[in-house]
Design goal:
Dna Ligase, domain 1, DNA ligase (ATP), alpha+beta, ligase, LigD_ligase_dom
Length: 314
């Protein structure tokens, strides 16, 4: 189930609030052993060995949560998680797990034993999850926060957090659907993007990537250009992007954008940027690179619109 970008609901009594963490969404299947699937249904279990001790479980259960790298003050750091997202070499994974340990923040219970829970209201699922008492060295259930919602989001801003999630107490779990019954209220504006090309750099970046050409899919299924991003990169990120984009090169434009000196690529890679605002012509103002999102499929990437809460039951 996916959240919709929105504002804090007016009716605080119908909602619970949670901290929005900045990591990798993951479904955990806890049976005789642990199996973890990313949002695009890829098995990523091997990348997170420090979570293996969640299993075995009797009865088995299925949970939803976020894999994060937590800083000393308890905030999640997507940048710290980046070196771990792309690794599949067992020795490298073990070394990174020791240096940058991940934590699985579990916020929903979807199945237990032979019973599916997705039709139950959020509050009941959450209470059942809390009864499991999932507290371990690298996993935990983050707390539910009571309203008023405006005070919760203000406090999250003062603490430097990404934002909060607002979840209707009576909402069922809707697999694969983006619903206004889960709202994400962000302190930092970000947007998933599809990389459709790159422009060569100058100066210190001469001969290398200077900026990436960004696009999103429209509701009609067409790619539309939303500008370039040329800041926020580390040298290792640029080297990794160059290696990944090299086999994706193509001679014809990926979109109908009239941009000179672009090296066009197949729209296979998804990234994430922060930005200040959308311009009137549909471009991102002051975008800054945050990292690749290998857990996302390109055709899922659309412009995020701010929506208001929907009243009434789902």
């Amino acid at each position: 189930m996916l959240a919709t970008a929105g504002i804090v609901p007016r009716d605080d009594t119908a909602w619970n609030f949670e901290v929005k963490f900045d990591g990798i969404r993951a479904i955990g299947y806890i049976t005789d052993e642990l199996r973890i699937l990313s949002r695009n249904d890829k098995n990523i279990t091997a990348a997170w060995p420090e979570l293996a001790a969640l299993a075995p479980a009797d009865p088995p259960f299925v949970v939803d949560g976020e894999i994060v790298a937590l800083t000393a003050d308890g905030r999640s750091s997507f940048e710290a998680l980046q070196p771990r997202m792309h690794q599949r070499n067992p020795a490298t994974i073990r070394a990174l797990a020791a240096a940058i340990p991940a934590t699985y923040l579990i916020f929903d219970l979807l199945h237990i034993g032979d019973r599916s829970l997705i039709e139950l209201p959020y509050l009941q699922r959450r209470e059942l999850l809390e009864q499991l008492d999932l507290r371990g060295p690298r996993w935990q259930v983050p707390p539910r926060l009571s309203g008023p919602g405006a005070a919760v989001v203000d406090q999250s801003r003062r603490l430097g957090l990404e934002g909060i999630l607002c979840k209707r107490l009576d909402s069922p779990y809707l697999p694969g659907r983006r619903s206004p019954h889960w709202l994400k209220v962000k302190n930092i504006r970000d947007q998933e993007i599809v990389i459709v090309g790159w422009k060569p750099g100058a100066g210190r970046r001469a001969g290398h990537i200077g900026s990436l050409l960004m696009a999103v899919y429209t509701d009609a299924g067409e790619l539309t250009c939303i500008g370039n991003v040329g800041t926020g990169f580390t040298q290792s990120a640029l080297d990794d992007l160059a290696a990944r984009l090299e086999p994706l090169q193509r001679k014809t434009p990926t979109t109908d954008a009239d941009v000179p000196d672009v090296r066009w690529v197949e729209p296979r890679l998804v990234g994430e940027v922060s930005f200040s605002e959308w311009t009137g012509d549909g471009r991102l103002r002051h975008p800054s690179w945050r990292g690749l999102r290998l857990d996302k499929e390109p055709r899922q990437v659309k412009r995020e619109l701010i929506r208001h809460a929907r009243s009434g039951t789902p």
